[in-house]
Amino acid sequence: MDLSIELLNFFDVKARSMARGQMISADLGRSSVQIYASGRIMLRNETSSQIALDDMKRCLFYIMPAVVCQND
């Protein structure tokens, strides 16, 4: 979770840890995202489903190194 926050902040995404480090809340500009320690990702965008899909791809690109390294 810590690496995910660092990566999001590196890509200028405002992210913060919540629920005692069990959840990350981030603002992607057009969408908001919550990333849970269990691996669940919830993205919200009230404008367009296509924008939400594009933002989800961006979010996954940002945190992919943290997902790959989670067992290290």
Mean pLDDT: 83
Number of DSSP-assigned strands:
4
| Shape summary | globular
**What is the ordering of alpha helices and beta strands?**
HEEEEH
Straight-line distance between termini: 13 Å
Proportion of beta-strand residues: 25-35%
What summary fits the major beta sheet?
Answer: 4 strands, antiparallel
Within the largest sheet, what's the order of strands? 1-2-3-4
- Approximately how much helix is present in the residues? 40-55%
Stretches where pLDDT is under 50 for at least 5 consecutive residues are none
Radius of gyration, whole Å = 12 Å
Structural class category = alpha+beta
Give structural notes.
The chain has 72 residues and is an alpha+beta fold. The chain is built from two helices and four strands. The protein has helices at 2-10, 49-68; strands spanning 14-18, 23-27, 32-36, 41-44. A four-stranded antiparallel beta sheet has the order 1-2-3-4, with helices on one face. Helix 1 (2-10) crosses helix 2. The mean pLDDT is 83.
SSE order and pairing:
Elements (H helix, E strand, L loop, with lengths): L1 H9 L3 E5 L4 E5 L4 E5 L4 E4 L4 H20 L4
Antiparallel strand pairs: 1-2, 2-3, 3-4
Structure keywords:
single chain; alpha+beta; 4 strands; four-stranded antiparallel beta sheet; 72 residues
